Amino acid sequence: MFWLGAIAAIALIIVVHEAGHMVVARLCKMRVDRFSIGFGPGILKWRRDETTYQVAPLLFGGFVQIRGMNPGEDIDPRDPHLYPNRPVWQRFATIFAGPGTNYLFAAVLAFALYAAVGIPSGTAWYGVSEVDPAFDAHGTLEPGDRITHVDGDPVYIALEGEPHTDLVGLVDATGGEPLEVSVLRGGETLAFSIEPTLDDSLGEDEGGPRYRLGIRLAEDPERISVSVFGAAWQAAVYPVEQTKEISKELYRVATREVEGEVVGPVGITEIIRDHFEAGIIYLIQLMMLLNVYIGLINLLPLPALDGGRLAFLAYEMTTRRRPNPRVETMVHLVGILLLLILMVLVTYRDVANLF
After folding, report:
1. How far is CA 262 from the centre of its chain?
2. If residue 47 lies in a helix (H) or strand (E), which one and from where to where?
3. What pTM did the predictor assign?
4. Per-domain residue ranges of the chain
5. What is d(CA 14, CA 8) in angstroms, rounded to the nearest whole number?
6. How many Å apart are CA 343 and CA 263, to the nearest integer?
7. 3-state SS of the chain: helix, strand, coil percent to 5?
8. Among 52-61, 141-150, 242-251, the least confident range
9. 203-219 pLDDT tens trace
10. CB-CB contact of 155 with 147 (8 Å)
11. Phi-psi category of 51—alpha, beta or left, where left has phi over 0 and alpha has psi -120 to 50?
């Protein structure tokens, strides 16, 4: 059940992105031939007006096929409804609309969450999102639990905006001695004695062998009720702040200050599944973050991504000259090939990690 929900969540992000392209293309009077969730031959198809909608088997992306946009198409220079024959600002708006709609959807989700349950106050507890069956915590702790105390001492991820407790280090320092762990579950405080287990399967890049409780941790923030206007303001700020944080992290990875990890569709599906199990608030928070990630990554000026097309369009707008179509086509084709190779390698690794 959770796997199906995770796949549906990924499909929703794809639909949001591609719908942005399609809606703006139609507003700009371009012909949209196909709207696809996934890649490959359509296994479910239906047609409405001039557009064929389909669901394809490779559900790690999607596309909108706008007439005249694909490499190798015959272009009638007299047809005003073809992509290349529209004004450059309309083509720019059509391409930007995909990642832009992801940003907008992140803000909409943030507004719904903040209006319903409030905004984070700066204080956050450790939450349980998953329990490993091989550890002592299995059958005791449950997804959705909030860890409040360890051996009688309060533990927080952050207290009034400042880092507070390194729970991972605290558990490892026990040397395997049992811990008294208090959790909040359904409004009731429960206490358990849990014995950490030495996990020697962790590699050096994961910190090496250490004692663990066998739980996957999630942030469980304290929330403050706000007005509708306050929720709207915080929702508008959210994509901006997250973009800054993600950009900083990407820079640290690019400069090799930290190790980066690329997660493919299978890995993302597994992460979404875990958040489904932890609860709706965790899921919405993840969907907010993933939409910002998708929007930002697609805006990077790399071949085959929306940002790569925007770079060529920006050149055209600046110089008032169109780039050589053969050069642009070749750049995007090479980018698509490299992206497909990367996706195959990452997906293979994600599948291998499941076993």
Report:
1. 12
2. strand 44-48
3. 0.79
4. 2-115+289-353, 121-224
5. 10
6. 9
7. 50, 25, 30
8. 52-61
9. 665 667 788 898 888 88
10. yes
11. beta
Per-residue tokens: 318: 């600046």
For β-strands 32-39 and 58-66, DSSP reports them as antiparallel
Q: How confident is the model at residue 99 (pLDDT cuts 50, 70, 90)?
A: very high
Which is nearest to 30 in space by CA: 73, 86, 76?
86
Q: For the stretch 150-181, what's the b/e string if a residue is b when 16 or more beta carbons lie within 10 angstroms of its beta carbon?
A: beeeebbbbbeeeeebebeebbbeeeeeebeb
Given a cut of 60, whether residue 30 has pLDDT beyond it is yes
**DSSP code per residue over 235-261:** HHHHHHHHHHHHHHHHHHHHTTSS---
Question: In this structure, which amino acid lies at residue 301?
Answer: P
The residues that bridge with 216 in the sheet, in sequence order, are 130
Per-residue H/E/C for 290-316? HHHHHHHHHHCCCCCCHHHHHHHHHHH
Cα 83 versus chain centre, distance:
29
**Token pair belonging to 311:** 């770079």
Instruction: Classify domain 121-224 by CATH architecture.
Output: Roll (2.30)
